[in-house]
C-alpha cells in the first residue's frame, strides 16, 4: 500500500510533543520532526483547524482537544482501566503508597491511571506520561515476560542501557513474578507485577511506589505479595471483560 508522506509528516509533528515539552514553536517542531519550516507551519495550521493542535497565546502550539477524545476511546477499548481500578483501590487501602497502571507500548510505558494515597510523595508518573519501559517498575515487569531477544530488539539504540544487567534483572523478575525498581525517580522504589490479557499476552504492569527508605524487611514482602495478587486479579478481570462475560 502506498505511503502518504503528508500524513507521515503530520504524525511526526504530533509525536514531537512529550510531557516535558508541552508547548513547541514552529522552529522547534520543524527541528524535532525533520520537516521544512514552511511545510511544518502549513501542517500545523491544518491540525489546528482539525483540533489536533491548539495555538498557544504568545506563540507556539500544544496538543489539541480532539486527541484527548481519541485517546479516551483507545483507553476504553483496551479495558485496562476498567479491569484494574477495583484492584488498584484495594491495593492503595492495603499498603498505601501511590498505585500506577502502565500499558506497554513498544519500548515505552504509557501511564493510564494513578491512585494517590499519600500526597507527600511527589511522583513524575502522571496520566498520559510516556516513559522508557526499561526505567520504570511497570515497564520492567512487562518486559520481563518478553523473550530476551525481543527486549534487545525493542531497546536497540536506546542510550544508557546496560543490556546484560537489565536482562539479568528481568530474568529475576520473571522468576519471582515481581520487580523492585528505583531507576525512574531518585528516592522512590516501585514494586510492580505484570498484567496479562487474552491469550496470556503481556499488556503492561501494576505498581506501588513508596519512599525507598520505608520499603524493607517485612513491609517489602507484604507489598510484593499484595502487588502480585492485585495484578493477578486485574489480569483475570481483563480476560473476562474481553470475553464479554
Distance between the termini: 38 Å
- Counting H and I runs of at least 4 residues, what is the number of helices? 9
Tell me the radius of gyration.
20 Å
Strand order of the largest sheet: 5-4-3-8-7-6
Which strand-content bin applies to the residues? 15-25%
Strand element count: 8
Shape: elongated
Q: State the CATH superfamily name of the largest domain.
A: GAF domain
**Low-pLDDT residue spans:** none
H/E series: HHHEEHHEEEHHHEEEH
Indicate the percent of residues in helices: 40-55%
**Biggest beta-sheet profile:** 6 strands, antiparallel
Q: What structural class should be given to the helix and strand makeup?
A: alpha+beta
| Mean pLDDT over the full residue set | 87
The CATH architecture assignment of the largest domain turns out to be 2-Layer Sandwich
- CATH classification class of the largest domain: Alpha Beta
The CATH topology of the largest domain is Beta-Lactamase
Task: Give the count of structural domains.
Answer: 2
Keywords:
245 residues; alpha+beta; Arc Repressor Mutant, subunit A; Beta-Lactamase; 2 domains; two-stranded antiparallel ribbon; 9 helices; 8 strands; 19% strand
Sequence-ordered SSE layout with sheet pairings:
Elements: H1 5-15, H2 26-33, H3 37-49, E1 53-55, E2 61-63, H4 65-78, H5 80-95, E3 98-105, E4 108-115, E5 130-132, H6 137-143, H7 148-155, H8 163-176, E6 179-181, E7 188-196, E8 202-211, H9 217-243
Antiparallel strand pairs: 1-2, 3-4, 3-8, 4-5, 6-7, 7-8
Please give a structural write-up.
This protein is an alpha+beta fold and 245 residues long. The protein folds into two domains: 5-67, Orthogonal Bundle (Arc Repressor Mutant, subunit A), CATH 1.10.10.10; 79-243, GAF domain (Beta-Lactamase), CATH 3.30.450. It has nine helices and eight strands. The protein has helices at 5-15, 26-33, 37-49, 65-78, 80-95, 137-143, 148-155, 163-176, 217-243; strands spanning 53-55, 61-63, 98-105, 108-115, 130-132, 179-181, 188-196, 202-211. The strands form two sheets. The chain has a six-stranded antiparallel β-sheet with strand order 5-4-3-8-7-6, with helices on both faces. The chain has a two-stranded antiparallel ribbon with strand order 1-2. Helix 1 (5-15) packs across helix 2 (26-33), helix 2 (26-33) packs across helix 3 and helix 5 (80-95) runs antiparallel to helix 9. The longest helix has 27 residues, at 217-243. It is elongated. It starts with a helix and ends with a helix.
